[in-house]
Automatic annotation (TrEMBL), chain A:
Residues 521-773 form the EAL domain. The lineage of its organism: Bacteria, Bacillati, Actinomycetota, Actinomycetes, Micromonosporales. NCBIfam families: GGDEF (TIGR00254). It comes from the Bacteria. This is Diguanylate cyclase (GGDEF) domain-containing protein.
Automatic annotation (TrEMBL), chain B:
This is Uncharacterized conserved protein, contains FIST_N domain. Pfam families: FIST, FIST_C. It comes from the Bacteria. Residues 43-241 form the FIST domain. Coiled coil: none annotated. It comes from Asanoa hainanensis. Residues 242-380 form the FIST C-domain domain. SMART domains: FIST (SM00897), FIST_C (SM01204).
Length: 776, 396
């Protein structure tokens, strides 16, 4: 029965209730203790985790929002009567708090000035930031950061919670200690990051060899390293400071520049090599100035303007000073380089210019021609090569100085002819080269040539005289891919000589189509002029055989040219060249001399053979004034009657050769006509030239054995002609037994050819003669 | 770029449709057509799509896009869905909500690379959604998000979003799920099916937008310090091996209700509660993986104060009702969006259908529309707002 029950039960229930309540309180207290400990540890963990300063602040604010259930956590700096938020968790990124700031409430103001933290519940409207203006029952805590060291003076950490509990004194303790640690960490990381950045970028400054770009990079680096809005680099020269580079968010450098360096704030400190941090006289913003020194003198000043003093703590100053010393070295480098460059340019100018006229010189001209070939849009470059006719006469008559003066005057006039983009060069002496910009065809070249002639048409006043000057001009068009500067210059030069050959004041265009042929010829021409001196020429001897007895009766002397690079150059190539250039005169004389001396030697050794010698001569050799061939023959010690001179049908029988021909003929020298039958004028020629022998051309000999082509008939006819005129007939180019048989059959007395013997050296010729003598 | 939808009428029209079975196209067509029918030919402004990973998701979105025209379309894969008081069990189902009118403005944005940098992804996602909604701001705003539930730190994602929204704009949403496979989850943005991504819809409204979350879990342990965390693995609790401490604090089995089949050693009856500044708990699901490690879905902050928590079905059901009733205020909304953790469904077992009915009852005439998630977002106070084993809701 339970009447009023067991008194134990209620007591038990009430005790259990009490115990449960106590347990709950204990659990609650334990939870609170763990929560407080956990949040401190979490904050410290975040602060201790390696990250950038910005990320550290961001993470810390996020964790603060989490562990204090704060709607808004922010770091703000007080500037005048406004709080500018610099970092936040809980404000949208486009909130005006970041740009326009909030009014500094009375509590925040007190916290900043007193340096003590504060917390309020049911924050009055004046202390509520705009986003929480309408939220009654807001709790907030303000933690001053100004006491943490000068770097962060004026900064405050604020937490706002809509509704919820008061921030307790214990909370404030956690926040204070956390804020201190966070700022220490931020400071050391900012410093570490700045030093790292400086270590990376500083040495790289020296790569700027141009001072302008160096300072442009330095100023950006300065702004970045000091974390300011605006930075400049001022250069100081002759006590005047001038803005050389600017990195300014507002684009405002303040005063007029340049201005006396002594007007800079803290100049006395700067001049002593020390940094200046202090008020900027033109505004309330603090300013940092760090001198860049060289040899104890300020050469530049790094300047940074912050809107907060925190920008210029000790570490900012130190870092700016390190930057200044890097900059000093880099500027010195830059100046050395500039001087070096200027000297190089002067040297280059001297190397590339003709000192007399200031025109481009030979080397520059060649470069420019190659560039024009490479870069011309049409792929064509036009070139004129010209010299002054009879300049040598001026030089000889008035002296070299007058000659130089004339060259200068000519250059002056030519400058007026050239158009932008053309290049006029003096090649040396009286030679000029004009590269015509945009030339596309020969008309452009001839037009320009005419302009040059017109420019030179007026007489030149020189040493009280008036001198007439004309130019011989060679013109050439070069095409990209096939032409080169050297080839074009050579061709234009050749064309100029051709022009000169036609008279004065002429223009000759180099024939593009013929260029391939003539390039070789031109090369050979010049080489040939030296061949004799270089000992590259030799003489070989081809036996002329009495066919019937197969006995050597004579030799034909043949010139050979062994070119050092090209090897043996065939006579049908180099002989015409020698005739063109006139080199045939000395070469021909030399060959005749060699042949006659050799004949003399053989006649001494083989007197019984009655040997004779045939030597080819050119018409030029017979011209008056080119030496007497008879003298050469006599000097060699042979009887002129033992010498046959071979001439060709093409040889001009002009008046001026006939006298020498007569004297040779009178002395007993014989003439033979080479390659007889190859010209329609053959027979007429025989009437005018004292010829005593005919050489039957190899083409007729070759045709003899073939049926039905008349070869044999022609040979027979030539022999008949020879016979009727009392001339000897010689067959050339006997190469087969059939040809030999046919010639014997026709009664041809003499012949030569590979079947009988190829041209031989002296030694082998001598050996052949000995063998012949032994055989006999 | 995603367009912004501005409404012509203040009255909201909405429809909810579902489809199931093996044929993706048939299921998707049925769901979207059903959802559009009540709109009586009006162009929808917002279309939400929840689908089982069993479907060809590209086809699902293609079908929905074809039918829904230029609406803002978003959604996620699910582990079951709930709508109009009905439960679609994990492994099946496509659910579509179509909404027109109501004075709302929607801006859609998405971002990938959540795994690599969740904060950055969150920030760019929110910026994109804000850009899409246009420069004109509404008196009330909220952000609805879907995230790849298996990619990255979901609270970090929220931190990034928070930088753009600030504290005044609530965030609600869910992490995508995959029918408890814990293999791959996807989110939808327009016609895109994305992984390692998140999607946000910036919502502008003339009426207040209320976000509420609740869980109903109770601590079974004293507070503990999370002294060893290695990503998603919890190594130490209070200086001791975590698994040992965790198991010590399991609640003795008093009821013998049937649980859904578990996946991968997932143990839903217990979880961690992160102790919040106000003493409340933020639930973080935990399970023992095949290596025998105690693992969470998202990394827990090191040195957090936690408690082992457990729950019973009745508490979960009551909390759900309270959350839904809380978002349905005096004016009857067009729809109640629900993000319900699949862990709750696991614990409710057969009573899952009862939950769906009770949530609908709490919502009154407004249809409920939701899915079972791998994580819920309900950020209202402070930056913290990622939950597990929680139910979150917002009414439109």
């Amino acid at each position: 029965m339970v009447a009023y029950g067991d008194p134990q039960t209620p007591r038990f229930e009430s005790e259990a209730e009490t115990l449960r309540a106590a347990l709950s309180r204990a659990e609650g207290a334990a939870a609170a203790a763990y929560r407080d400990t956990a949040r401190l540890i979490r904050l410290l963990t975040v602060i201790g985790t390696p990250s950038s300063p910005g990320r550290l602040i961001d993470r810390t604010l996020t964790v603060l929002s989490e562990v204090f259930a704060a709607d808004v956590v922010c770091i703000a700096e007080a500037i005048d009567d406004r709080l500018f938020v610099t970092a936040s968790c809980g404000l949208p990124e486009d909130d005006p708090a970041f740009t326009d700031g909030w009014p500094v409430g009375p509590t925040a103001r007190r916290v900043i000035t007193s340096g003590s933290a504060a917390a309020r519940h049911a924050v009055p409207p004046a202390d509520r930031p705009p986003p929480l203006r309408d939220v009654e029952g807001t709790s907030a805590a303000w933690i001053p950061l100004s006491g943490m060291g000068t770097e962060f003076a004026g900064d405050v950490l604020a937490l706002y919670r809509s509704g919820g509990d008061l921030f307790t004194p214990a909370d404030l303790q956690v926040l204070l200690s956390m804020a201190y640690r966070m700022y220490s960490a931020v400071e050391s990381r900012e410093r570490g990051a700045a030093i790292e950045r400086l270590a990376q970028a500083g040495p790289g400054l020296a790569r700027h060899l141009d001072v302008g770009s160096l300072l442009d990079e330095a100023v950006v680096l300065l702004r970045e390293l000091t974390g300011t809005d605006a930075a400049w680099v001022l250069t100081v020269r002759d006590d005047l400071a001038e803005v050389a580079a600017v990195a300014d968010a507002a684009g405002d450098t303040g005063k007029r520049w340049p201005r006396p360096a002594t007007d800079l704030p803290g100049w006395s400190r700067l001049a002593a090599g020390e940094a200046y941090v202090g008020p900027n006289p033109t505004s309330d913003d603090p300013i940092l100035l760090v001198p860049v020194m060289r040899d104890g003198t300020v050469i530049a000043v790094l300047a940074a303007r912050g809107r907060r003093v925190r920008s210029f703590g000790k570490s900012s100053v130190e870092i700016a000073q390190v930057l200044a010393s890097y900059l000093s070295v880099a500027m010195a480098n830059g100046e050395h380089y500039r001087r070096l460059k200027a000297r190089e340019q002067e040297l280059h100018r001297r190397a590339s210019r003709d000192p007399l006229t200031g025109l481009a010189n030979r080397m520059t001209a060649a470069q420019r021609i190659d560039e024009a070939l490479a870069n011309s849009p049409t792929g064509v470059a036009g070139l004129l090569f010209f010299d002054l006719d009879k300049f040598k006469a001026v030089n000889d008559r008035l002296g070299h100085e007058a000659g130089d003066e004339l060259i200068q005057q000519v250059a002056q006039r030519l400058r007026k002819v050239v158009r932008p983009g053309d290049m006029l060069a003096r090649f040396g002496g009286d030679e000029f080269v004009l590269l015509i910009n945009g030339a596309s065809d020969l008309t452009d070249l001839t037009d320009m040539g005419r302009r040059i002639q017109v420019a030179l048409a007026d007489e030149f006043p020189l040493r009280g005289e008036r001198v007439e000057v004309t130019a011989s001009i060679g013109a050439v068009l070069g095409r990209r891919g096939t032409a080169s500067a050297s080839a074009m210059l050579r061709d234009a030069d050749a064309a100029m000589y051709a022009a000169k050959a036609r008279g004065t004041g002429r223009l000759e265009v180099f024939d593009d189509e013929a260029s391939h042929r003539s390039i070789d010829r031109l090369d050979l021409r010049s080489d040939l002029s030296e061949a004799l001196d270089q000992g590259q020429l030799s003489v070989v001897y081809q036996p002329m055989v009495e066919l019937k007895s197969n006995t050597i009766r004579s030799f034909e002397a043949l010139a050979r040219w062994r070119h050092p690079e090209r090897g043996n150059v065939p006579p049908d190539v180099f002989i015409p060249l020698a005739e063109e250039t006139g080199a045939i005169v000395p070469i021909g004389a030399w060959v005749l001399d060699q042949a006659c001396r050799q004949l003399a030697m053989w006649q001494r050794e083989f007197p019984e053979e009655h040997l004779t010698m045939s030597v080819n001569i050119s018409a030029v050799q017979l011209e008056r004034g080119h030496g007497e061939l008879l003298d050469v023959i006599r000097a060699a010690g042979v009887d002129p009657t033992d010498v046959w001179l071979e001439v060709t049908e093409h040889m001009d029988t002009a008046e001026d050769i006939s006298s020498q021909v007569s004297s040779l003929r009178d002395a007993g020298v014989h003439f033979a006509l080479d390659d007889f039958g190859m010209s329609y004028s053959s027979l007429a020629y025989l009437q005018r030239f004292p010829v005593e022998g005919l050489k039957i051309d190899r083409s007729f000999v070759a045709a003899m054995p073939e049926a039905g082509n008349g070869g044999r008939g022609i040979v027979r006819a030539i022999m008949a002609v020879a016979d009727s005129l009392s001339m000897k007939a010689f067959a050339e180019g006997i190469e087969t037994q059939a040809q030999l048989d046919a010639l014997l059959d026709l009664g041809c007395g003499y012949g030569q050819g590979h079947l009988l013997s190829p041209p031989l050296s002296v030694e082998r010729s001598t050996a052949a003669l000995r063998a012949q003598r032994d055989r006999a | 770029m995603w367009g912004v939808r501005v409404l012509t009428s203040n009255r909201a029209y909405r429809g909810v449709g579902t489809g199931n079975g093996t044929d993706t196209r048939v299921a998707a067509e049925k769901a979207v057509n059903e959802a559009l029918r009540p709109l009586e030919g009006r162009q929808p402004d917002l279309v939400l799509v929840y689908a089982s990973v069993r479907y060809d998701l590209q086809t699902v979105l293609k079908t929905v896009n074809a039918a829904a025209g230029p609406a803002v379309i978003a959604g996620a894969t699910s582990s079951g869905q709930l709508h109009n008081g009905k439960l679609t069990e994990p492994g099946d189902g496509i659910a579509v909500l179509a909404l027109a009118g109501g004075g709302y403005r929607f801006g859609l944005g998405h971002a990938t690379g959540v795994q690599a940098d969740a904060t950055r992804a969150g920030r760019s996602l929110a910026r994109a959604a804000l850009d899409a909604v246009g420069p004109e701001r509404s008196p009330h705003e909220a952000v609805l998000i879907f995230s790849d539930g298996l990619a990255g730190d979901q609270q970090e994602l929220l931190n990034g979003i928070h930088k753009v929204t600030g504290f005044q704009i609530p965030v609600v949403g869910g992490a995508a799920a995959d029918d408890r496979n814990l293999a791959e989850t996807f989110v939808f943005a327009g016609d895109k099916v994305l992984r390692d991504a998140a999607v946000a819809i910036w919502i502008g409204s003339d009426r207040p937008l209320r976000v509420i979350g609740g869980h109903g879990w109770q601590p079974t342990s004293l507070p503990l310090m999370l002294s060893g965390v290695d990503g998603q693995i919890v190594r130490e609790l209070g200086g001791r091996p975590a698994l040992e401490v965790y198991k010590e604090n399991f609640r003795p089995r008093v009821t013998d209700h049937k649980l859904y089949p578990r996946a991968g050693g997932y143990h839903s009856e217990h979880a961690f509660g992160l102790i919040q500044p106000d003493g409340s708990l933020l639930i973080r699901g935990a399970f023992i993986d095949s290596d025998g490690d105690l693992r969470t879905f998202s990394p827990l902050p090191p040195f957090s104060a936690v408690q082992v928590v457990s729950c019973d079905a009745e508490d979960l059901l009551e909390v759900g009702e309270r959350v839904v009733a809380g978002v349905v205020e005096a004016e009857e909304p067009a729809v109640v969006l629900v993000f319900d953790c699949v862990a709750r469904l696991d614990i409710l077992g057969e009573r899952g259908h009862e939950e769906a009915r009770r949530l609908q009852r709490a919502a009154g005439n407004a249809p409920t529309f939701g899915y079972y998630t791998y994580g819920e977002f309900a950020r209202t106070t402070g930056v913290a707002g990622y939950h597990n084993a929680t139910i979150a809701a917002m009414a439109l």
